[in-house]
Amino acid sequence: MLKPKVLLVNDHAASLLALETLLTRSHGETDYEVVTARSGEEALRKVLHDQFAVILLDVSMPGMDGFETAEIIHSHPRTASVPIIFVTAHYADEMNRLKGYQKGAVDYLFTPIIPQILQSKVDIFVELAKKNLELEHKTHQLAELNRDLQVQQMQELKKMNSALQAEIIERRQAEERAHGLATRDPLTRIAEPPFLA
């Protein structure tokens, strides 16, 4: 089964590497794949290509900031429900936080990031994505099983239909033989005239 993916978006290379390291080191063998992007534009390209369990998105980036990136991600039907966690250093900026929630954020992480908090927040969405992938896989298996069952039923119906047709032919032949025996003289095999009352 496919591994869920986590997208990290940050224009600062050191911060991006630190986040990636925190997520990949803390679990050893992770049950998800980490994908990185260095800009909002690059993040949009990645989102078009892959599905993500969660996106950790830097708020302050040159060009397209985190808010604009989140708004575009959530404007597309395929990615409208992807959870976004904004990453920022601004603790007290309530207006920015409100704006983030309005753009579709499910949560905020404040730098410096505490590894356990980061991991627990990511784990929640990864676990949800794994359950969704498992459900999709089981739905696909069920559809295949249903298709196989339909094929099997069609084959059985064709066999029954063939047997029924053979029985009908056999009965017609028996009826014709019986009719022939009833209407012909058994010695001469000549048709007897109909009995007149």
From TrEMBL:
Transmembrane segments: none
Domain Response regulatory: 5-126
Keywords: Coiled coil, Phosphoprotein
InterPro entries: Bact_response_regulator (IPR050595), CheY-like_superfamily (IPR011006), Sig_transdc_resp-reg_receiver (IPR001789)
Coiled coil location: 128-177
Highest taxon above the source species: Bacteria
SMART domains xrefs: REC
Name by which UniProt lists this protein: Response regulator
